[in-house]
Amino acid sequence: MSAESFAQLFESDQKALKEGDVVRGTIVGLDSETVQVDVGFKSEGLVPLWELMDDEGKVLVREGDSVDVLVEEVEDSEGRIVLSKEKADRLKIWDEISKAFDADQAVDGTIVSRVKGGLSVDIGVKAFLPGSQVDLRPVRNLEHLLGERLQFKIIKFNKRRGNIVLSRRALLEKERERQRKETLETLEVGQIVDGVIKNITDYGAFIDLGGIDGLLHVTDMSWGRVNHPNELFQVGDQLKVKVLKFDPESERVSLGLKQIQPDPWVDAAHKYPIGKRIQGKVVSLADYGAFIELEPGIEGLVHVSEMSWTKRVKHPSKVVEVGDEVDTIVLDIDEVNRKISLGMKQIEPNPWSLIEEKYPVGTRVSGAVRNITNFGVFIGLEEGIDGLVHVSDISWTEQIKHPGEKFEKGDELEAIVLKIDKENEKFSLGIKQLEANPWDDIQRRYPMGTMVEGEVTNVTDFGAFVRLEDGIEGLVYTSQLSPEHVDKPSDVVASGERVKAIVTKVDPAEQKVSLSIRAVTDQAERKALEELAAKQSKTQRSTLGDLLAEKLAEQQAVEGSDDGDV
């Protein structure tokens, strides 16, 4: 070949290859740094060996393999063609991405990192996935998606700027709409369907049935008590549910889970007959009692009044806590209204049924003062058993306005058992009964006509009270204070003054003693008259006797009118 012909051939080869072209060549040789590729030029092109190696450094080609390469330089300073396999692949990827964008086709990619505002996705080149386009609902934790290989839709593409924006949400919405139409065509009441928990609220869980959401209300999750749906489920859980209601127009679906399970209340009366002893778990407390789970779906109520025979339980938390295992007795069952009444105190014998045997009437007992009221004192005899000493049974003689004047909480007292009322659980005690009633023999100690002496303790508008002994007072009516007419008792006697009087009347039942100071004077006058009469003749004695009889009759008439007035 002539030099001129060779020059022409060389020039035509140069025209055939242009920088930036992607051409196919054949590998003709490899060394430690480069791969020689025949692209139909006068000399082989060179590709860096690392571009044809995997991540572990293994060479992926051999002589004779065909590869696509990008012409970076037609001829370098040494007259060689500079080629790039990596740039050829990248250019090819951009062409494929461009075609997918124009055809509205999905592309595969791997989420590689978290970036500002979203995620970086490798689809052959780096692309941006905004956080709002990750899923149908906002995703709080984007990191858990790293490494996931998914499909995306290209929503923005600019090859010149190297800008690609993706959306996964667009594909999900399209798929969801397809599923929604399919689900609406097949969904019907009573059907058992599969679903995935999409969201959880205080009142229930929303289940994705396939393009359409249904509500599983908390009351339809279990026959047992469910305080909050998150006790049973988490977002993403898969479960089977029953369609309870379905409105195609509003696309509202009500779902049930417990309806798939047998109703535990069926035949509950047979399983829990009245009087049966059964153990359960405290699942809830209210002011009026504790709810006990006997089995999932069946709860019974122990009312506060059924918790203790002896303690007055103000709140069930004083006796039990949520989570406690307790023994109970079935008191009543109502299958229609799904109610079971339970008792805890019935596990033990009623201490009041043994109280009469333990503390018969007349028994002397002792205990500490547990409570003081205006009507009496409560004495604790044993745990939960208190006896009441009524204010009227504290003393035979003292006028006690309030027991707090005499006792304090914690005081140790003795008393006598007076009465036991098992049905109403009342225990009556008496303190004064420890001693004999001083009024029982008052007539023997103070017979009528006896002269007594005592201290005036109180002066009133109607007379004066005179202390005869501790706890025993006699009353001198105003008319019996003096032989003379008296307007005000305080004009005649004063508190603290010692006086003499005659007992004119004793009433043990009413605990009253009537006295007369005036009778003391009258008695002295009678004695003087009797002595005078003894010195007179028999005829005069008869006259004096008549006078004395008239005097006594007048005194008795006055005493009778005084007793009737008070």
Secondary structure: elements and pairs:
Layout: H1 3-16, E1 22-30, E2 34-38, E3 45-48, E4 66-73, E5 81-84, H2 85-102, E6 106-115, E7 118-122, E8 126-130, E9 149-158, E10 163-167, H3 169-186, E11 192-200, E12 204-208, E13 213-217, E14 238-247, E15 252-256, H4 268-271, E16 277-286, E17 289-295, E18 298-303, E19 325-334, E20 339-343, H5 355-358, E21 364-373, E22 376-382, E23 385-390, E24 412-421, E25 426-430, H6 442-445, E26 451-459, E27 463-469, E28 472-477, E29 498-507, E30 512-516, H7 518-535, H8 538-565
Parallel strand pairs: 3-5, 13-15, 18-20, 23-25, 28-30
Antiparallel strand pairs: 1-2, 1-4, 2-3, 4-5, 6-7, 6-9, 7-8, 9-10, 11-12, 11-14, 12-13, 14-15, 16-17, 16-19, 17-18, 19-20, 21-22, 21-24, 22-23, 24-25, 26-27, 26-29, 27-28, 29-30
Helix pairs in contact: 7-8
